[in-house]
Amino acid sequence: MKIKVLPEDFIVKEKLDIEIKPSGKYKIYLLKKKHWNTIDALRFISKENKIPFEKIGCAGRKDRHALTFQYISVPREYDISFNRENVKLEFIGYSDDFVSPMILKGNYFEVVIRKIKNKDERIFQRLDEIKKFGFPNYFDDQRFGSVENEEEFIGEKIVKKHYNGALKLYFTTIHPEDKREEKERKKKIFELWGDFEKVLPLCKTKVEKEIIKTLMKGKSRHYLIEAVNLIPKEEMSMFFSAYQSYIWNRTLSTVLPYYTDLLKPVKGKIMEYLIYKTLSDKALNELKNLKIPTVSSRIPYVNSLVNNTILEILNERGLKPSDFDLKKIRKSFYKSFLRPAIVFPENLEVSNFEEDDFYSGYFKLKLKFHLPAGSFATMLFKSLTIYIANT
């Protein structure tokens, strides 16, 4: 079974709590895109319209492997336009509020599941179970795009004040989607790391050059901190979010066995996700009301199980909460928020089986549903498929 075979197989539409008016402080645009992630699209919009990146408001990052509809805002004094083959902007109106994660109510999804071998009614039974029992609200692999293994979090290196290690990862982490030339460039930088005069000619961007020129000034901690602070804010936020998400996921996977022992692991990019099929009434009621905090220097108290689990995971990583108070890092910070342990799709609809027009001899289904802000539709798919064997 496959999803995201075509961008149109995975449609995402934002639901915002915002009032559109004939006039207001901000202009609101609908950004329709595919084959682009949100940050890259906003960077190009910023550059082409000569508007500072930080002036563009958005509610969330959307995957490149999807057809997505999301909203952005700019102060009303700016006029922006951007129409490429796979990225289009449409002016919606004005608002007195800017677009941010604070006003994101959730997302509407239309997902096509392809390459289904036979018309197995267990798929419908499993979807009924997901309606009743929900599924674990893990951050899915998309959140870990900047990470290739559990020991290489730039966010963790910065918390540990391993600034040289963080910068080396920033320059040299090789991702599967990197082209051969880019992989070779990163390998060369890895080999030359520390000899920054030789690294400088290999730099591609203005930011890379500024960081290496700063490191060429000296090897003191002062210059390392100055170099780390040159990482753009949106990238730094992404690194910190990835590490918070990892610790949160580890917490949930450790806590879940206290509620049920009927768990199956599904492999993710950097960790396994434990997923249940059904829950007892007691476990369902408790998990429906359980919220797990993300890590920061001040972690809200939930209960002894959750909070002790977080402390144990941090201790295993050689950390404690106070380490997340980053006084010397200016562009981003770790802030704790509560996230539901499990999530329920709303208004879940499923089509009848149809012949797959992409994979000959197979079938397809279409799902429609809403999820709360921050929850991943791909986790619903993992929760569905792990208990449907031989389909």
TrEMBL record:
Residues in TRUD domain copies: 134-344
**InterPro entries of this UniProt entry?**
PsdUridine_synth_cat_dom_sf, PsdUridine_synth_TruD, PsdUridine_synth_TruD_CS, PsdUridine_synth_TruD_insert, TruD_catalytic
Which PROSITE patterns does this entry report, sorted A to Z? TRUD (PS50984), UPF0024 (PS01268)
What EC number is given for this enzyme? 5.4.99.27
Q: Which domain of life is it from?
A: Bacteria
MF terms from GO for this chain are: tRNA pseudouridine(13) synthase activity
NCBIfam families per the record? Answer: tRNA_TruD_broad (TIGR00094)
Q: Which protein are we looking at?
A: tRNA pseudouridine(13) synthase TruD
Q: Which gene encodes it?
A: truD
